[in-house]
Task: structure prediction
Amino acid sequence: MHWLISFLSLALSGLTQALSSTGSRLLVVSEDVGGKETYSVFWGDLENRGYRITFESPKNDKLTLFQHGERAFDHIILLPTRSKGLGPALTPNLLLDFIKNDGNILLTLSADSPVPSSISSLLLELDIQLPPDRTSLIVDHFHYDTNSASEKHDVLLLPQSSATRSDVKDFFGGDGVIAFPRVVAQELGASGPLLTPIVRAPDTAYSYNPKEEAITVEEPFAVGSQISLVSALQARNSARFTVLGSVEALENTWFDAKAKAPGAKEVKTSNRIFAKQLSAWTFKEIGVLRVGKVEHHLSSIEESKSGNESVAQLGYLNPQIYRIKNDVTFNIELSEQSFEGLTPFTVPPGDALQLEFTMLSPFHRLDLQPIATAPNSTIFSTTFRLPDQHGIFAFRVNYKRPFLTNIDVKREVTVRHFAHDEWPRSWQISAGWVWIAGIWVTVAGWVAFVAIWLWSEPAYERSAGKKMQ
Result:
């Protein structure tokens, strides 16, 4: 009976386990710890997905992000505060250390709460700039909610974003409309390869300080598509940091609100769906790639067949040494984590998963093609001929794309020269037939000359000499 109870408890704990590949411990930092009702629907959705939420105030002296050298939490949500700092436990250096230790952070901003100096310093470290005016917000006179912001135009209504590039997977798309009340503008540095905008402002939007009662804005902080409403950074260790410019977008009011853009019909906002997508990506529920088997072996190519059937394995898997000009096959198994669990990974259209066969620089860079699909993985493969160069080489798959965790797989092998008995014999080389024929002609001519010389004795005549007594 005891084993049955233990089994059921383990099964129930597995069902309540968060989908995140990092963990389920979530820290919510807010000055108003008692005011959970404002975002109660959002907290409930997170708990239903298996997260264990801890609410703490930044002023709590006992708050710490690390215990015994390890993370005390797996994820952090930073809500806006009115204080200039976040306390000794949430300094920019500690937050950066949290990211370096594979922690994920969702930072929310609001134009009603000035951004603390520690948050500004943290964002500058990540090449994200905020308006110098602490109370600036984004205004758009063409894409606003006529129900709630008919005069101020500070509640933006935007369609759910599509992929920023055609070769990037879209994790935030949809057919709905998202309301962004009182958004704080963000400008991403051009030199930051790890930064990606999730939602950009329309071309008619601009950053504006409402305290400046001016008819026109002469030098705005940023305008149009320069402004990012929601930004994402994925570190080199695949830790994720997301900045949401409007914390009001997570409120219960906007999860079920009805909004109306100028000249359009009244629609229900999709903030709840977008909040799920944004939090799931930030906390690594989606967009996580996993590597399964990695194999390479000698191959024999049959020209009479096509496709994968033309390649036959020779020898055993994953040998440590090859010979120059060998035909080699490389296979890698990849899975992608989604809301349904592990699914087969598919390369987006316009993109390519590539294999590099490299020493100091790549000798080959080849596209990996899917050859088989399992219920939760895809096997990619390619076959090629090794270069005529000996040394220490590496099979490398270096796949780094926005919104997907990084893959960097290396397998080192040795490539040797031909052995003395592996070179083709001289009579197998057609270019050497002339020289071989010349050798044998010379030998045959010498033998014929000797034979003729031996068998061609000259005839001698007898001379008539005097007869001796």
The chain has seven helices and 28 strands. Residues 1-17 have pLDDT under 50 and may be disordered. Helices lie at 2-15, 40-48, 92-100, 117-125, 252-255, 271-282, 433-455.
